[in-house]
Design a protein that fits this description.
- The protein is mostly beta strands.
- Helices cover about 0% and strands about 50% of the residues.
- The radius of gyration is 13 Å and the shape is globular.
Length: about 120
């Protein structure tokens, strides 16, 4: 059974940092590209990053450029989303997801497996 479990979300003040984790089980992460996406209340899902099997990264969301970074470890079967300088616009449920194909050049949002999401709330 394939499982993706996100953790690390919470309520933080503007300017704070959070590090989200995505732990994968039931398959070899090295066989998949991994994406990080988010969805804010009342808004469409937004694809932030895709990190490929070769560790190549694609950034799709200009709003997080320079503040968020993504990494993966195929031995640990895990990925992390480091989020710095958080602001209220970053409030959303954050998801990790897997696709068997390479990261697309533009955001598509098509993934084969999804986690349940972790909530991030940025507020005073």
């Amino acid at each position: 059974q394939v499982q993706l479990v996100e953790s690390g979300g919470g309520l933080v003040q503007p300017g704070s940092s959070l590090r989200l984790s995505c732990v994968v089980s039931g398959l070899k992460l090295s066989d998949y590209s991994l994406g990080w996406l988010r969805q804010a209340p009342g808004k469409e899902r937004e694809e932030l990053f895709c990190i490929g099997r070769d560790n190549g990264r694609r950034l799709y969301a200009d709003a997080v450029a320079g503040r968020f970074t993504v990494s993966r470890d195929n031995v640990e079967n895990a990925s992390w989303l480091q989020m710095d300088a958080l602001n209220p616009a970053d409030t959303a449920t954050y998801y990790c997801a897997l696709r068997h194909t390479s990261c697309p050049k533009v955001a598509e949002g098509f993934y084969d497996y999804w986690g349940q999401g972790t909530q991030v709330t940025v507020s005073t």
